[in-house]
């Protein structure tokens, strides 16, 4: 009996082993098959070797044709040839073909297509961008009438009043772009405001194997924006004046962009709200460089882990070539905060934007039966007031109570930690509840409820006050009033909870974000019946900065993108316009530091006259690439010429940024920076140091004198620590001041590492 049982058991073991082996072999076969299935890859070839775009494309077919066996096969495989701003192509390849191409001596690198994600009336007044002032950046540039802003996003809604061209002169003669007709969009819809509108969907089509059905996805194969994100961003950057703009009565005022007369070129690369493929984005950027834009705005981002700038990031390479052509690239920092090391778009040639609140808030009054009124925040309720009615607590009710109708006609109160506010509101509505009050953690979003009943959101502190009233009152009652707009300064500016934070996870010595701007509750144009809606995100903060950059580019046409970034950073607010310190939402809330907002909140009133700038160009960016450890061959291909990094390898700490960030300080080091005088000849600046806690700083020289023949001066900063243990980052600043006319401030971030975790 025992032997027989043992034999059967062993036979079963053999059967199981054989079965598992077959499954494993099958999995390997499936993986191998999947790896050989064609996918879209982007092949980067660096700087263009020909001025004639046709010759560039021919060279692409030569490379691809040699791999695939013929020019015909190359034309069949290739979906884009990048031939204006840089050289490269996207093609449908197997993984083995991609590997073989990556070994071609002309290729910088090969990357697989990636899906990136999309990351309103009060903003301009809040920042001091006043169109009626007799002086200032807006006045001096005719509101940006000669600037051209490229918006790479989800398209454009040409019928919005924000894109009217009233009072605008001819389109700038340097413009080479076009408007393209398509579904629901006629090229004739463009005007002297909206001067370009194109769309890119070959990457999308290949992903769907040619079966993307636009109508089923509520999309249009044209530049037409069906999502609203691109229209919102474009009108935030450059929207024309529109009086009485509002969202169902809230936030009413005159809508306008940061640069109200700037021209808009829309490049549609995002579809169905979520699908933005890198081959399409690259082709849009390639065309934008050809078309003649002054600034590129991309409210797009990727998630951790980030792509390395040269070896893996399609997007950063295209941005590099744009910057080398003098086009400033402004990008969203991402919406993955408040956790640290979540900031994206971190290449040092990109301006990376964080999001803050501003001095406009929306409160939903909740009046309890004891006549105490508390204010709900973040959620918007647009509807009739729900008068005093019974207030009940969710946790006091059972499922049977709800089914028996005991909540019908009443206001429901609940605490919410992990459930969707919309889901609980929908449930409440289904049970006949007339209103709901939700106590939840703040999220810094301004959005309407979707359940169709009166709703208000409060934080846990106010929630406990309501719960105390409920539990100490025999017949508790409440009423919910419609949301009201409060403008002024009911609370100080904060870095939004969702705004992604530094430090930079790729190169910690490169400070990111660079700058912050309002990105919460921004009212701007959308393609809906109401015309204007609130949106929140670093996506909304980015075009605020983009518009300011466009004005600055028109005011200072000889400034490089790095000089513009420096001016933004060194003139920024560290307090809000009312003088209150800027806080950073998170757990816990704290005073904002450089990893929250870079240099601070953008200050357009000072940005055109910073006094000094920390400029960067070709040599400084190559310094960064060498210090980051990229290979000579990769850098050479990117630059389009042979380059050998110096030995010893230069320090990343010496990249000429308007900031100093030291991730690993154990012994004394010396850091170098160079400043360029863009103010009066004869200016004299003295150093003012606010050292980080426990950090010693010595600046040499302590005085900078810019005589008639002195445009640039290099200075050094000796940095040492008094800490005897590993610390977190401590923060300070270095300011060059000429007796107050200019205060050129850069942030300092220093972390002591007695024992380095990187060996």
Protein structure class: alpha/beta
| Tally of separate domains | 5
Question: Any idea of the CATH topology of the largest domain?
Answer: Rossmann fold
Write down the CATH class of the largest domain: Alpha Beta
- Rounded to the nearest angstrom, the distance between the terminal CA atoms is 62 Å
Rounded mean pLDDT is 87
What percent of residues are in strands?
Answer: 25-35%
Alpha-carbon Rg, integer = 29 Å
CATH superfamily of the largest domain: Peptidase S8/S53 domain
Helix count? 18
The largest pleated sheet is described as: 8 strands, mixed
Shape: globular
In the CATH hierarchy, what is the architecture of the largest domain at level 2?
Answer: 3-Layer(aba) Sandwich
Catalogue the unreliable spans: 1-35
- Overall helicity: 25-40%
Family: Belongs to the peptidase S8 family.
Keywords: Glycoprotein, Hydrolase, Protease, Serine protease, Signal
Protein name: (rape) hypothetical protein
GO molecular function: serine-type endopeptidase activity
Features:
759 residues, alpha/beta, Alpha-Beta Plaits, Rossmann fold, Glucose Oxidase, domain 1, 8-stranded mixed β-sheet, 7-stranded parallel β-sheet, 18 helices, 26% helix, globular, disordered N terminus, (rape) hypothetical protein, hydrolase, Peptidase_S8_Ser-AS, Peptidase_S8_His-AS
Summarize the structure.
This protein is α/β, with parallel strands linked by helices.
Description:
GO terms for molecular function: serine-type endopeptidase activity. InterPro entries: Peptidase_S8/S53_dom, Peptidase_S8/S53_dom_sf, Peptidase_S8_His-AS, Peptidase_S8_Ser-AS, Peptidase_S8_subtilisin-rel, Peptidases_S8_3, S8pro/Inhibitor_I9, S8pro/Inhibitor_I9_sf. It holds the Pfam family Peptidase_S8. Residues 144-575 form the Peptidase S8/S53 domain. Keywords: Glycoprotein, Hydrolase, Protease, Serine protease, Signal. The protein has 759 residues and is of the alpha/beta class. It has five domains: 39-112, Alpha-Beta Plaits (2-Layer Sandwich), CATH 3.30.70; 123-358 and 497-605, Peptidase S8/S53 domain (Rossmann fold), CATH 3.40.50.200; 360-487, 3-Layer(bba) Sandwich (Glucose Oxidase, domain 1), CATH 3.50.30; 617-652, no CATH class; 656-758, Immunoglobulin-like (Sandwich), CATH 2.60.40.2310. 26% of the residues lie in helices and 28% in strands. It has 18 helices and 41 strands. Strands 17, 18, 20, 21, 22, 24, 25 and 26 form an eight-stranded mixed sheet that branches. Strand 2 and strand 3 form a beta hairpin. Helix 2 (53-68) crosses helix 3 (71-77), helix 8 runs parallel beside helix 14 (538-555) and helix 9 (278-291) packs parallel to helix 10 (314-324). The longest helix is centred in the N-terminal third of the chain and has 35 residues, at 2-36. The relative contact order is 0.11. The model is unreliable at 1-35 (pLDDT under 50).
């Amino acid at each position: 009996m025992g032997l027989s049982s043992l034999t059967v058991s062993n036979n079963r073991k053999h059967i199981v082993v054989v079965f598992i082996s077959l499954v494993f072999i099958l999995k390997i076969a499936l993986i191998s098959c999947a790896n050989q299935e064609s996918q879209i890859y982007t092949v980067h070839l660096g700087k263009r070797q020909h001025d004639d775009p046709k010759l560039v494309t021919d060279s692409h077919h030569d490379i691809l044709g040699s791999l695939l066996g013929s020019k015909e096969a190359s034309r069949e495989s290739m979906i884009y040839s990048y031939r204006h701003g840089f050289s490269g192509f996207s093609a449908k390849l197997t993984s083995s073909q991609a590997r073989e191409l990556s070994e071609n001596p002309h290729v910088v690198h090969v990357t697989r297509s990636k899906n990136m994600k999309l990351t309103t009336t009060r903003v301009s007044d809040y920042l001091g961008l006043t169109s009626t002032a007799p002086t200032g950046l807006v006045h001096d540039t005719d509101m940006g009438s000669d600037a051209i802003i490229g918006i790479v996003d989800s398209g454009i809604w040409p019928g919005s009043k924000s894109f009217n061209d009233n009072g605008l002169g001819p389109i700038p003669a340097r413009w080479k772009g076009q408007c393209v007709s398509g579904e629901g969009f006629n090229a004739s819809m463009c005007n002297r405001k909206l001067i370009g509108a194109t769309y890119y969907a070959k990457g999308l089509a290949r992903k769907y194997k040619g079966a993307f059905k636009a109508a089923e996805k509520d999309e249009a194969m044209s530049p037409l924006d069906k999502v609203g994100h691109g229209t919102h961003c474009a009108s935030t950057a450059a929207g024309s004046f529109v009086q009485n703009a509002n969202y169902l009565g809230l936030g009413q005022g005159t809508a306008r962009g940061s640069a109200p007369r700037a021209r808009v070129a829309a490049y549609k690369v995002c579809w169905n709200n979520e699908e933005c493929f890198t081959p399409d984005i690259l082709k849009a950027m390639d065309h934008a460089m050809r078309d003649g834009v002054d600034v590129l705005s991309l409210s797009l981002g990727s998630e951790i882990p980030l792509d390395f700038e040269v070896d893996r990031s399609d997007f950063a390479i295209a941005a590099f070539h744009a910057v080398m052509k003098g086009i400033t690239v402004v990008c969203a920092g991402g919406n993955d905060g408040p956790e640290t090391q979540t900031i994206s778009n971190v290449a040092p040639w990109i301006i990376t934007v964080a999001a803050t609140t501003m001095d406009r808030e929306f409160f939903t009054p909740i009046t309890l039966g004891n006549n105490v009124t508390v204010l709900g925040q973040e959620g918007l309720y647009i509807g009739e007031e729900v008068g005093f009615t019974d207030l009940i607590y969710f946790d006091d009710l059972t499922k049977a109570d709800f089914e028996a109708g005991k909540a019908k006609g009443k206001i429901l109160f609940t605490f919410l930690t992990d459930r969707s506010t919309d889901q609980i509101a929908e449930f409440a509505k289904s049970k006949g509840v007339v209103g709901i009050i939700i106590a939840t953690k703040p999220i810094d979003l301004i959005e309407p409820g979707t359940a169709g009943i009166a709703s208000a959101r409060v934080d846990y502190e106010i929630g406990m006050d309501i719960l105390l009233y409920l539990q100490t009152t025999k017949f508790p009652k409440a009423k919910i009033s419609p949301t009201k707009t409060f403008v002024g300064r009911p609370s100080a500016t904060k870095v939004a909870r969702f705004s992604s934070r530094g430090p930079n996870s790729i190169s910690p010595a490169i400070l990111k974000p660079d700058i912050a701007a309002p990105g919460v509750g921004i009212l701007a144009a959308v393609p809906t019946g109401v015309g204007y809606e609130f949106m929140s995100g670093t996506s909304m903060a980015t075009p605020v900065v983009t518009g300011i950059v466009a004005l600055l580019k028109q005011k200072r046409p000889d400034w490089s993108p790095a000089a513009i970034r420096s001016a933004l950073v060194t003139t920024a607010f560290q307090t809000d316009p009312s003088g209150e310190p800027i806080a950073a939402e998170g757990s816990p809330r704290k005073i904002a530091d450089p990893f929250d907002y870079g240099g601070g909140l953008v200050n357009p009133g000072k940005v055109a006259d910073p006094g000094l700038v920390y400029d960067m160009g070709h040599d400084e960016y190559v310094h960064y690439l060498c210090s980051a450890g990229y290979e000579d061959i990769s850098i050479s291909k990117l630059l389009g010429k042979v380059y050998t990094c110096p030995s010893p390898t230069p320090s990343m700490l010496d990249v000429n940024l308007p900031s100093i960030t030291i991730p690993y300080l154990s012994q004394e080091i010396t850091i170098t920076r160079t400043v360029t005088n863009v103010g009066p000849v004869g200016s004299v600046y003295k150093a003012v140091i606010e050292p980080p806690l426990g950090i010693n700083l010595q600046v040499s020289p302590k005085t900078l004198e810019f005589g008639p023949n002195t445009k640039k001066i290099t200075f050094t900063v000796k940095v040492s620590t008094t800490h005897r243990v590993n610390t977190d980052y401590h923060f300070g600043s270095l300011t060059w001041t000429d007796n107050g006319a200019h205060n050129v401030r850069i942030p300092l971030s220093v972390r002591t590492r007695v024992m380095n975790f990187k060996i």
